[in-house]
């Protein structure tokens, strides 16, 4: 048996919500198969299975928000041959429980130590009524209200002068601190839906706050029930949660990472002329945007200067296996996400353009894959379409560098002692000074410039 | 820097100098200089009229103090330890604390009683108990527990100025502690926040304050920011400061050298639950003395008293519960 746990989809993720199960108990899965859609604070992400086997129990229901590391499902890794003798047949289904509506009926049955599921109901819709309980208990089972007597089958030693211990209580109410209860009431949140993280499983104030910050996805996806005002509140909460996630990551970055910044201005005339020529021969759907060219240049330069492509973990640099270029994409409702374009340096331009388009559309529709969320080795942010001339970014930890592109602008520019009008782009590098020095960063920017000067090489 | 002992001595000397109605009496306070050397040298400075040795007779000399106070003087009565004060409990409870009420408000009893409390010096059960919580039960008394050098020196003058009986409990383990002397009288109506924090409130007083502060240091090393509240005034309790802190941290650990059952820590717990139930994010924890007569043997005595590791553990439990 193996546990499928809530994965960490990024340095800033602490909890996640199972938005959708893509498998059900009994399904055979192979390693790498998508198994669930997880809602982080930022996006819906398809998560793949790490195990091959048969899905056992789904531990966490959709809409439930749990901390990273929580077991979500159990996967039976045994082969069918191994499994067969141990479990000859699935257990017979439980008899469907009798309908019980009234607390009084529950209490009476509990007082008599009776199993309600064994009773046949005569009320409307086969509901078990008080009369059914009393009939099943027999005449001696009737007791005056307010008193209890020893339960059948639990007959005690002496005459029944001592009242029996009180009947087992109704299903225990969820354990929660007074503060958590008050907060839940104020935030209009059902405590039973909040997972407790206290030592004894009690719900604490922080749990309620977390749950309130992002209400379950289920609630978000139940529009007919929600009043319009409530839907707006859910969106606000989601936005708030994303803001908090970004706040955590960026605060950590600015606190822990000593940034240094380099800027250089690149003449794009050769690159754009080349791109124009190339696009002219292609159908519109296959044309490449300058943004893709910039991405490709950054990725190729990162492959040339590998010290900027990777992570700073435990006081040491860990190089990325390939250049998985994170692409900062802003979301419609606000916020930001930077999924990875895998192996950006190794892909040709057309492929990269397609990957870019695919990623943007999936970010906006909310379907990313786990690997895209976690594996970026360096991030590029391009604010050119906003008219921004240059952007000095904040590194997304534990990465060690962030490349920023501004708008390609026509400007007076001196070449070979003559002034001309050229399309220029400002490229910046924010890099982790613990991992590299300005010299390495300079080499990177020089490589970007050289590559854009010789676009055919890209 | 000065010691707790010197701060009290200085405060007594200042009171004797400032007001000729003030005098000190108790067992061995004169020629011997006080059992804990608090009044050492005062007899030489102020003479036997004002530094008066008494027989071993707590009921008699506390009663004499009450009479002197009623007669217009401002007596400071020293009782060697809180254990012995029980011999004078009748005077304290049935006279000092009640005369104002029983006289229909005609007679105040402006008496100050100082006594040693607490364990930690291998003086065995009959010299080591912490019974200030019992006195804090009695209406008509003000109960003070200075934990710092500043409070030790600064509480006497306002206590003497109080028209009603004030009992000052000095923890025996504090006499040699050092600190900055204060600049004058301190407030004897409020508790003090000795260290700000956000995760849990450690409530302590007297001899346990320094253990709570040490525990807070250790907790801080583990990332838990404990707020330390020094009750200072055990009666009337400064509820407001405690509740304010709970509203801030949502968690409480009470450290009390008294026995848990029916103790001051029980009272503080009840107040928190009464006034701040919906602020609590965890059950209130208490670290108290073991419910045994305080042992003589050093290691047993240590084991019986609230210690730093127990406070740290309780705080961690509360923060994670």
From TrEMBL, chain A:
Location of region: Disordered: 75-99, 114-180, 215-237
Enzymatic class: transferase
Key word Transferase present: yes
Keywords noted in UniProt: Acyltransferase, Lipoyl, Pyruvate, Transferase
Bias kind Low complexity: ranges: 146-161
Pfam entry (one): Biotin_lipoyl
Cited CDD domains: lipoyl_domain
GO cellular component: cytoplasm
Molecular-function GO term, any one: acetyltransferase activity
Cross-referenced InterPro entries: 2-oxoacid_DH_actylTfrase, 2-oxoacid_DH_E2_comp, Biotin_lipoyl, CAT-like_dom_sf, E3-bd_dom_sf, PSBD, Single_hybrid_motif
Domain Peripheral subunit-binding (PSBD): 100-137, 175-212
UniProt KW Acyltransferase keyword: yes
UniProt biased composition (Basic and acidic residues): 75-85
UniProt feature, compositional bias: Pro residues: 87-96, 162-171
Domain Lipoyl-binding: residue ranges: 1-76
Known cofactor(s): (R)-lipoate
EC number: 2.3.1.-
Family that this chain belongs to: Belongs to the 2-oxoacid dehydrogenase family.
Protein name: Dihydrolipoamide acetyltransferase component of pyruvate dehydrogenase complex
Taxonomic source organism: Nonomuraea muscovyensis
Higher taxonomy: Bacteria, Bacillati, Actinomycetota, Actinomycetes, Streptosporangiales
TrEMBL record, chain B:
EC supergroup of this enzyme: oxidoreductase
Domain Transketolase-like pyrimidine-binding: 2-177
Cofactor or coenzyme needed: thiamine diphosphate
Keywords recorded for this protein, A-Z: Oxidoreductase, Pyruvate, Thiamine pyrophosphate
Pfam families membership: Transket_pyr (PF02779), Transketolase_C (PF02780)
Any GO molecular function: pyruvate dehydrogenase (acetyl-transferring) activity
EC numbers for this chain: 1.2.4.1
Domain of life assignment: Bacteria
NCBIfam families in the cross-refs: PRK09212.1
Protein name in the entry: Pyruvate dehydrogenase E1 component beta subunit
